[in-house]
Amino acid sequence: MNSLPLTVTLVGTAYPYRGGLASFNEMLIRTFSRAGKKAKIETFTVQYPSLLFPGKTQYSASPQPEDIDIRRSVNSVNPFNWIATGMRLRKERPDLIIVRYWTPFMSPCLGTICYLARRNKHTKIIPLLDNVVPHESHFFDTWLTRYFLGAIDGGIYMSQQVRNELLAFAPSLPTRFSPHPLYANYGEKVTKQQACQYLHLAPETNYLLFFGIIRDYKGLDLLIDAWKILKEKELTHNKKVIVAGEYYNNKEKYITQMQQLGVSDDFLIHDYFVKDEDVKYYFSLADVVVQPYKNATQSGVTQIAYQFEVPMIVTNVGGLAEIVPHDKVGYVTDATAEALAASIEQFYVTDGTKRFTKAIQEKRKDFTWEALMEQFESLFKQLG
């Protein structure tokens, strides 16, 4: 076997599917390609059945990337397809298969493909593990997770939280750590004036940003409660909270909460999936990104904030505090409305935008795609 992989196949989400997973996988394969590897993606023909998908659409409205070899081949709910795909990959004999693992729902599909592909005694299976224990759990998750972990040779994790979860299932599994790289595909920062003009917002207003798909564990309700506290202290003048993202849970409960607390006018609801080309405008106008999560492993939103040099206020859950050094690039706070309100107040009192910018510029150098690729290569070499 080669000391380093020459042929790399990534099994996971990619175009025509939308979202952070697809963008991430495409950038990772580009990195391998730039390094001279023969790299491709095997993505889904069916990712989630329509009945199980909570959003409006799974598909991207952006143009197809022309610089990546993407094959639609994997049906997540068809066992005959899993067998056929696994046997085909076994015959193709890539040096390395990277599997993007983020939910136990995919375990039967991805695990079966991996079990079959690695039977050629050549291919090494190294997944990138977003989660081992899902944010929203079900009784069958443990069995499904064990099935998948039994089909791999090693793993890459992006937070200590995931490593701890992994140790409970597979303590002897060879692993490497690499932090979530930056999302450079969203372009460069524009001026606040340009961003406000594009989004039809007033440039003289201060904006806080809550960004991404909205699920219960992301704590939007905590931010609404915190805003009520700030409003009672008369600290919300000339400030608005932009909530930008599609709701995967009950939107109306948040709207009702805002109305009952009398803060509706301070929240700007952009309740749709933000396409890649528009992401830069939201982050370019934000004073601070707020992530009041109730649980988490790592978050792509944090890395987008680094890309656009925006300070962050995050809760001390999962791996968020590992990536956001407290009082250097933002604040790490308890997952309560009171603590969140205090951090927002402190941010504006101390001019956090100006104070944290230099440290953000330094810290973002840690999050490169080349570093992630090198961890895959290092683990591959160890596995022999």
Give the SSE layout.
Elements: E1 7-11, H1 20-34, E2 38-46, E3 70-75, H2 79-92, E4 96-101, H3 107-117, E5 124-129, H4 141-149, E6 155-157, H5 160-169, E7 175-177, H6 192-199, E8 206-211, H7 220-232, E9 239-244, H8 251-261, E10 267-270, H9 276-285, E11 288-291, H10 300-307, E12 312-315, H11 320-323, E13 330-333, H12 337-349, H13 352-363, H14 369-383
Parallel strand pairs: 1-2, 1-4, 2-3, 4-5, 5-6, 6-7, 8-9, 8-11, 9-10, 11-12, 12-13
Helix pairs in contact: 1-14, 2-3, 3-4, 6-9, 7-8, 7-12
Outline of the structure:
This protein has helices at 20-34, 79-92, 107-117, 141-149, 160-169, 192-199, 220-232, 251-261, 276-285, 300-307, 320-323, 337-349, 352-363, 369-383; strands spanning 7-11, 38-46, 70-75, 96-101, 124-129, 155-157, 175-177, 206-211, 239-244, 267-270, 288-291, 312-315, 330-333. The chain is α/β, with parallel strands linked by helices.
Structure description:
Helix 1 crosses helix 14, helix 3 packs parallel to helix 4 and helix 7 crosses helix 12. Strands 3-2-1-4-5-6-7 form a 7-stranded parallel beta sheet, with helices on both faces. A 6-stranded parallel beta sheet has the order 10-9-8-11-12-13, sandwiched between helices. It has 2 domains: 191 residues, Rossmann fold, CATH 3.40.50.11930; 182 residues, Glycogen Phosphorylase B (Rossmann fold), CATH 3.40.50.2000. It is α/β, with parallel strands linked by helices and 384 residues long. Strand 5, helix 4 and strand 6 form a beta-alpha-beta unit. Helices cover 40% and strands 17% of the residues. It contains 14 helices and 13 strands. It comes from Microbacter margulisiae.
